[in-house]
Amino acid sequence: MFKSKVVMVIFALSLCCLAQANPNHSDLEEEVLNSFQSLVEASKRLDTEAYFQHFDADKFVGLNSDGTNWNSMDELVPVINTGFSAIQKLNSLEFPNVKVSIIDDFTAILVNEFSQSVLLKSGATYTFSGGGTQVWSKRSGQWKLVSVSASITPSANK
User: Fold this and answer.
1) What pLDDT band is residue 18 in, cutting at 50, 70 and 90?
2) Dihedral sign of CA atoms 52, 55, 58, 61 in order
3) Do 141 and 122 contact (CB within 8 A), yes or no?
4) Three-state DSSP class for 64?
């Protein structure tokens, strides 16, 4: 009888530890995906103000698809502003493969593959695809981007 009680206590304690070691990440994943979707919607509207609200301006660093760093928002903002202002119409923006990895209650990594087609104000249509990595942080109380990395598929650029 004593042995079975000890086994039950050990089992109960192990479940307790397991629950604490693996918190319910589905809620956090959903929060990150909602933030990502809000970022995508701002992109589709070419709304730079709403787009930049998704970034932690004090902590941001990133890697451009050409291999250069963005060491602050001061370096990213002109790139995004120039790009958005050159677009007349967003024909399509799709993310066929998005995966979120929750690191802890305050940090998540989102990787994605995308394809996009835009009509530029010059009249040219530009279609490209690639992938990205985003590091999201919730230290400020909201999920904010603290880092992004981008890549473009060479064969897909047209």
Assistant:
1) very low
2) negative
3) no
4) coil
Q: What kind and span of H or E run contains 113? A: strand 107-120
The upper half-sphere exposure of residue 123, i.e. CA atoms within 13 Å in the direction of its Cβ, equals 0
- pTM for the structure as a whole: 0.82
**What is the spatial distance between Cα 55 and Cα 146, in angstroms, rounded to a whole number?**
6
The number of angstroms, rounded, from the C-alpha of 122 to the middle of its chain's C-alpha atoms is 30
Q: What does the block give as tokens for 86? A: 């050159």
C-alpha atoms less than 13 angstroms from C-alpha of 99 in its C-beta half-sphere? 6
3-state secondary structure 91-107: EEEEEEEEEEEEEECCE
Cβ neighbours of residue 152 under 8 Å, at least 6 residues apart?
Answer: 65, 128, 129, 130
Pairwise CA distance, residues 156 & 27, whole Å: 35
Tally of CB atoms within 10 A around 94: 12
